[in-house]
Amino acid sequence: MLTSRALLRGLKSGFWRPLSSTSSVQAAHGKDMSPDVLDPSVPQYNNRLDTPLSDVPFVRNLNSEQRQLKEKEKGPWTKLTKEEKIALYRLTHELTYPEMRRGSSEWKTVLGGVFIFLGFSGMLVWWQRIFVFGEVPHTLSDEWVEKQTQRMIDMRVNPVGGFAYHWDYVKKQWK
Amino acid sequence: MRNWGGRVVPFNWRHTVYGYVQICYTPLAQRCYSHGGKPESDEEFDARWVTYFNKADIDAWELRKGMNTLIGYDLVPEPKILEAALRACRRLNDLASAMRILEAVKDKSGPHKKIYPYLIQELRPTLDELGISTPEELGMD
């Protein structure tokens, strides 16, 4: 009882560790990895096509370099270089609109997986056909069917609109 | 309290200097009011939004709210509204939002590829004056 509980705790911390925040990741992003992302009562950053300006900027904890850039932003924007403008954009927004619209190739994986499993099922069915099912009944053999057909013609099965209707009794052949 | 009864207001083009193909949808102003009264015209709509963004001491929340609401409508905003919004960004020292607004209206135009170049053409003086680069100029598309 006690050992299993300890085991569970060990497993939990080991399992969840990669998913929880580490300080190095937090410094890099400042958005995703903080406890905020698990707290829906606090404004969140989100990438949405229909909401161009999100409630909070993507990067919240600015290092000194970024803070300097923000100061420079207060002056004329004509003095900013292209890289600085891109950096400013990326501070506030994680993805650009084209990046948001970009699809993934996940459908290939999904379709591939579906076909793999269908193929596997097909293999199973085939194996079953060969190794599980017995012989087909003798009444389906060619000679039996021939004799059976002849008998049906002699009996005039469905002479009006069905089987024997299609047999020409004069010429002794199918119409 | 803003009324959410807005229906489809097709984008109304004006003739451009370069003689783009003039696809003029008739301006069917269809903004209804729950308290009666005539529907708001396109000019009134534009004027209302220009006034909103031209507020001298607009704050960041108001800019965001205004922009997100405007993008929620079924139309592409007129250049004069966007100019007012870009100037509001300048007052708030927010270049990233200015670029985001340009991206958003390009996305809003959807399959009508001629709208965005027209908007940029109309906004060019403002963009140059404020020093806003379009996302294309920065290679972010």
From TrEMBL, chain A:
The biological pathway it contributes to is: Energy metabolism; oxidative phosphorylation
Membrane-crossing segments per the record: 109-127
Q: Which UniProt keywords apply?
A: Membrane, Mitochondrion, Mitochondrion inner membrane, Transmembrane, Transmembrane helix
Q: Name one GO biological process term.
A: mitochondrial electron transport, cytochrome c to oxygen
Tell me the domain of life.
Answer: Eukaryota
Q: Check the record and name the Pfam families matching this protein.
A: COX4
Broad class of the protein's primary localization: mitochondrion
Q: How does it sit in the membrane?
A: Single-pass membrane protein
The UniProt entry's GO CC annotations, sorted and at most eight, read: mitochondrial inner membrane; respiratory chain complex IV
* InterPro entries in UniProt: Cyt_c_oxidase_su4, Cyt_c_oxidase_su4_fam, Cyt_c_oxidase_su4_sf
Q: Is the keyword Membrane in the record?
A: yes
The record's annotation in CDD domains points to: Cyt_c_Oxidase_IV (cd00922)
Does Protease count among this protein's keywords? no
Gene3D superfamilies, alphabetized: Cytochrome c oxidase subunit IV
Places the protein is found: Mitochondrion inner membrane
What protein family is recorded? Belongs to the cytochrome c oxidase IV family.
In UniProt terms, what function does this protein have?
Component of the cytochrome c oxidase, the last enzyme in the mitochondrial electron transport chain which drives oxidative phosphorylation.
Protein name as catalogued:
Cytochrome c oxidase subunit 4
Which organism does this record belong to?
Hucho hucho
UniProtKB/TrEMBL annotation, chain B:
Q: Which GO terms describe its biological process?
A: mitochondrial electron transport, cytochrome c to oxygen
Name the domain of life this protein comes from: Eukaryota
Q: Where in the cell is it found?
A: Mitochondrion inner membrane
Q: Which GO terms describe its molecular function?
A: metal ion binding
Q: How does it assemble?
A: Component of the cytochrome c oxidase (complex IV, CIV), a multisubunit enzyme composed of a catalytic core of 3 subunits and several supernumerary subunits. The complex exists as a monomer or a dimer and forms supercomplexes (SCs) in the inner mitochondrial membrane with ubiquinol-cytochrome c oxidoreductase (cytochrome b-c1 complex, complex III, CIII).
| Biological function | Component of the cytochrome c oxidase, the last enzyme in the mitochondrial electron transport chain which drives oxidative phosphorylation. The respiratory chain contains 3 multisubunit complexes succinate dehydrogenase (complex II, CII), ubiquinol-cytochrome c oxidoreductase (cytochrome b-c1 complex, complex III, CIII) and cytochrome c oxidase (complex IV, CIV), that cooperate to transfer electrons derived from NADH and succinate to molecular oxygen, creating an electrochemical gradient over the inner membrane that drives transmembrane transport and the ATP synthase.
- What protein name is recorded for this chain? Cytochrome c oxidase subunit 5A, mitochondrial
